[in-house]
Amino acid sequence: MTNRTAYTNARLLDPATGLDALGTLLTEGAKVADFGPGLFADGVPEGIQVVDCAGACLAPGLVDLRAQVGEPGFEHNETIATASRSAAAGGITAVAVLPNTDPVIDDVSGLEFIARRARETKLVKVFAYGALTKETAGKELTEMGLLSEAGAVGFTDGTCAVADALLLRRALSYATVWGKPIMQHPAEPRLSGGVMNAGEIASRLGLSGSPAMAEVIMLERDMRLVEMTGGRYHAAHISTAESVEVIRRAKAKGLRVTCDTAPPYFALTEQDVGEYRTFFKLDPPLRTEMDRRAIVEGLADGTIDAIASDHTPHDQDEKRVPFAQAAFGAVGFETLLPLVLELHHKGALPLLAALDKVTKVPADILGLPALGRLAKGGPADLVVFDLDRPWKVDGDRLASKSKNTCFDKRPVQGMVLRTVVDGRTVHTRASA
What we know:
By secondary structure, the protein is of the alpha/beta class.
């Protein structure tokens, strides 16, 4: 008999349709059967399991546009199993992972490995990007057609920028055949070799700087290539005010361009590096307060389409070393939702607009239209969360195998209570 569960007394939120109402949602097996304010107004029939949400929010499960999971090759940092547990704890029900593994995901067998490990883990849905170039070396395109047929959601060299303009032009042209986006890490390699944002703070600390212009120059070049090819282009983790302007102009021209940012770039600045705090060493680096405000403005006006976790796990040995030698990146699954909600609590974005950045929009960019929304007959991928509950981030208590969060001890508001994937509860707290 199909398992049926009614989530009652829930604040139903669906950015895709603008729904914001108190009501009930019914799941049957892996699907959403029905939902709305009037559902089971006279009581839930016998035989249906009841989860009383007690006024908490119920929304589509989060769709994470970009993350690293370590496996294969870097299992000391993270595995697909530990990453899936961490994602579930963060209310994320679908994750798209980068190909920066060892070996690189540049052939069909790499995609099949990720899919198999995700099936074995049976927690969140894991999708993968195919590498744009072989071994992400930036020299020779991969078999994009085969990777597309095998399920790649897009093509990217992940943390490696594609510097060769001719190669990227070809990739943008080819990818249109399969309707897949090309995702670029916009950083001119010769200019972006520093370890933090170029400027007064880097000079005072004696650290090499990576200027904002390294990101802007690459974006401006790439916009020309998009204009030339008509390809679909996605810019990852936008971090500078001028980058927002470049994307804004490209969209005004009607170019097929989308972009995202990550919580550090709207919640932190270069000041947070303090005295060589390596957990704040990110790529791109944390920028100025002016840049941070421009990122928030870009999110508010729709220039920046989505927010990704940029989950990048590193163990203690790779972070607790001198700043110049420390690895780039921070874990982000479990802090994604509360930091997105911070945009709402501070009045920068309405609640549904903030949630849109981590549900419907990333699902659409990835070509996964069934995800990121509440729909009758659609997958029962859900998150229940307390919008207002305050808590403090504790890196040591994160479910991720690595604990390198740049938000440790930060007070946040908004707690995940339950995560549901295909009708199965994959994470829960005692209060939901």
